[in-house]
Request: fold
Amino acid sequence: MNQSRKVYLVGTGPGDPELLTVKALRLIQSADVVIYDRLVSEAILEQIPSGVSQIYVGKKSGNHTLPQDEINQLLLNLAESERTVVRLKGGDPFIFGRGSEEAVLLARHGIKFEIVPGITAASACTTYAGIPLTHRGLAQGVQIVTGHSQLDKPLELDWKALADANKTVVIYMGFANRELISRKLIEAGLDKTTPAAAIQNGTTAQQTRVITTLAKLTEDTVMLQAPVIFVIGKVVSLADQLDWFEVENAIEGDFTDNEKSLHG
Ligand SMILES: C[S@@+](CC[C@H](N)C(=O)[O-])C[C@H]1O[C@@H](n2cnc3c(N)ncnc32)[C@H](O)[C@@H]1O
Reply:
């Protein structure tokens, strides 16, 4: 194998192209071929120079555009034929992104690779929604979990550990299971009135933020659709006070219709 060839597994953050790292942007602009997921935003794809091949391998829950083993084979083939292969992933490649699975595959095949971290949705979407993950007196820590269960299996999480009023809980991929999640957290001891937020298309011009309570999370988010991230905990009570993103953009007239702040 030609040793100058390399595969880069690059996190792009959750949508706003200005959240790309300098390294991610440099690699996007020097790629021979770019492979990308569904969560990589249009604005980020616009940074790819014209003439560079772009291959979409995105997945939707329950509707796999390309199965992971075919993505793996594609990566191996491209690693053989191209010098700089840039594999873009929404957010951070190592947080619910299967970046580590692809890195293991490359390592097993002796293919040189680099991994570029990206800003993960838990950090960026909450910040753009005015919700700090920790705050003195409100949250001593953060628990990040997936709310996705395999089609034939129920969602199994450590509900007792998650129902900790002194920690923030962030749930990725939990939209389909949100009724179960809020019910289990209440059963495990978290107060029904615990502040809760849902952020759809965070950090983009389409960002929608719903501020509610744990008990009302399901009914207050019926109008949303993936990608949605949930935040549960006392820190959500700061969301209106710290609503910098939507307030700033509403002045320009772009975001007023997207804001849905429901108190209950
Ligand atoms: C397969 S995971 C990928 C996570 C990604 N690797 C990261 O670090 O953010 C997809 C989930 O991330 C969350 N997510 C990613 N981008 C988002 C965005 N812009 N707005 C809201 N949620 C987002 C949603 O929960 C979505 O279902």
In short: The longest helix spans residues 68-81. The domain at 122-260 is CATH 3.30.950.10 (Methyltransferase, Cobalt-precorrin-4 Transmethylase; Domain 2). Residues 145 and 171 are 5 Å apart (CA to CA).
